[in-house]
Amino acid sequence: MKKVILAAGLVAAMSVSAVAADYVLKFSHVVSENTPKGQAALFFEKRLEELSKGKIDVQVYPNSQLYKDKAVLKAIKLNSVQMACPSFSKFGKFVPQLALFDLPFLFKDIDQLHKVQDSEVGQKLKDMVTAKGYVALDFWDNAFKQFTSSKKALIKPEDAKGQKFRIMSSKVLEAQFKAVGANPQMMPFSEVYSALQQGVIDGQENTNSNIYTKKFYEVSKYMTVSNHGYLGYLVVMSKKFWDSLPKDLQANVKQAMKEATAKERELAVELDKSQFAKIKEYAEKTKKLEITVLTPEQRAEWKKVMSTIYPKFYDPKVIGKDLIDAAQKVK
Ligand code: LMR
Q1: How far is CA 192 from the centre of its chain?
Q2: Nearest partner of 176 among 209, 147, 211, 214, judged by Cα
Q3: Which one of 4, 126, 128, 273 has the fewest beta carbons within 10 angstroms of its own beta carbon?
Q4: Is 253 in the pocket of ligand 1 (CB under 6 A)?
């Protein structure tokens, strides 16, 4: 009897919370849950539901379950989904200038990058996104990217010659691979694993976290720790959804976001380290993956070739010399 009452109570409580939510906020992303973005999205869900006292029901959809890559930006415009966190490359059609963050070897380390994001440069870029009808919330990190290949270990820039690399849809990444004589191929994130497995592409570039959680290391023979470029995101919200929220709930969104961003930055550092350790463990155990960490001299050779592409993006319609110079000036 007691059990029945308890169960009935539980059902009632559940339906109350379901009914009590005034707003449903769907948050779509493409990566695994065990990544900086995946974990921070879940943190945001918990905090916003707490702060809004259940008035906003946040639903997180990972792994491209709802939308692939840049398709989510159209969906946000239509308010079919309320929130997303696409990588900078995926804003290409709307705000190509965000590709500033894709430029290889532009940032010396994550601190310099955060300073750029927190500076006028970051604000200018957010304003451009706002002008396109989105609510630009915060920048989130993943980490610096590494290369993987099944054709040839990438030690010198010449090693990339003729290799087919998957890239996100980005003119910068296209130019970056062309600079070393490789063949870049744009492809959604959700298709990378099978393209590597089937040999449609020879390699790809991504962070330790994405390489680990999507098992790209299992379908690659070589991995090069190059830290040649950065992968990060801008969290955006549907303007229609934002405008529908009363002031107090907007304040809750801002607060939950602020906390999630702080958490995200910590997670990005932790997961980059711990997930690389797991890839290394796999490599040592199975001998199926050869990992090379570039020496500073080898890295300098890649930098020399890849940074020749910057002038291609001096036109303000693509990125702009002002933004590139301003980012480089931040120390
Ligand atoms: C990729 O497409 O490689 C990344 O942008 C995926 C992601 O969101 O981290």
Answers
A1: 15
A2: 147
A3: 4
A4: no
Name the residue at shortest CA distance from atom 9 of ligand 1: 31
Q: Which atom of ligand 1 is nearest to the CA of 35?
A: 9
Nearest CA owner, ligand 1 atom 3: 189
**From the CB of 189, is ligand 1 less than 6 Å away?**
yes
166 token code pair: 């998957």
Domain of 176 in residue numbering reads as 2-329
**According to the model, what pLDDT value does residue 19 have?**
57
Is residue 223 classed as helix, strand or coil in its secondary structure? strand
How many domains does the structure of the chain reveal? 1
In DSSP terms, 203 is beta-bridged to 149, 165
Q: Quick one: which atom of ligand 1 is closest to the CA of 69?
A: 2
pTM: 0.92
Q: How far is the CA of 31 from the centre of ligand 1 (A)?
A: 7
Find the CATH number of the domain harbouring 144.
3.40.190.170
CA neighbor of 39 nearest in space, from 276, 275, 264: 264
- Mean pLDDT value across the chain: 94
d(CA 182, CA 175): 10
Tokens of 207: 């962070």
223 close to ligand 1 (CB < 6 Angstrom): no
Digit-coded pLDDT (tens) for 282-293: 999 999 999 999
